[in-house]
């Protein structure tokens, strides 16, 4: 699945997209939901997964959610990642 298709299907589920990045020969594509949460779109096939970054500078860590074979399967992971990100940023309501 390509980045544009993933972004379109996420939008259809009501998920706001900040930006996208097409894959290169060495890096997966990405659909960014905010500055720290994105959906990784593999270059050579395989499942999609949500990734959340934590920290800053040289202390960045990545939290990888399980691979999913469907867009709908990503929705609970996206909701969890955005909630965890908001809590980590002190923005949780």
Brief description of this entry?
The protein has 2 helices and 5 strands. With 93 residues, it is an alpha+beta fold. A hairpin with a 6-residue loop joins strand 4 and strand 5 (61-64).
What descriptors fit this protein?
single chain, 2 helices, about 90 residues, alpha+beta
Q: How much helical structure, as a percent, in the residues?
A: 25-40%
| Percent range for β-strand residues | 15-25%
Order of helical and strand elements: HEEEEEH
Shape field? globular
Description:
- With 93 residues, the protein is an alpha+beta fold.
- Helix content is 31%, strand content 24%.
- The chain is built from 2 helices and 5 strands, in the order αβββββα.
- It has helices at 3-12, 71-89; strands spanning 19-21, 29-32, 37-41, 49-54, 61-64.
- A 5-stranded antiparallel sheet has the order 1-2-3-4-5, with helices on one face.
- The radius of gyration is 13 Å and the shape is globular.
Task: Summarize the topology.
Layout: H1 3-12, E1 19-21, E2 29-32, E3 37-41, E4 49-54, E5 61-64, H2 71-89
Antiparallel strand pairs: 1-2, 2-3, 3-4, 4-5
């Amino acid at each position: 699945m390509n980045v544009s298709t993933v972004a379109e299907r996420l939008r259809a589920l009501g998920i706001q997209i900040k930006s996208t990045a097409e894959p290169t020969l060495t890096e997966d594509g990405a659909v960014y939901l905010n500055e720290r949460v994105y959906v990784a779109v593999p270059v050579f096939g395989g499942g999609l997964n949500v990734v959340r970054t934590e920290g800053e500078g040289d202390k960045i860590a990545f939290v990888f959610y399980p691979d999913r074979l469907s867009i709908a399967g990503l929705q609970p992971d996206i909701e969890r990642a955005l909630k965890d990100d908001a809590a980590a940023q002190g923005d949780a309501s």
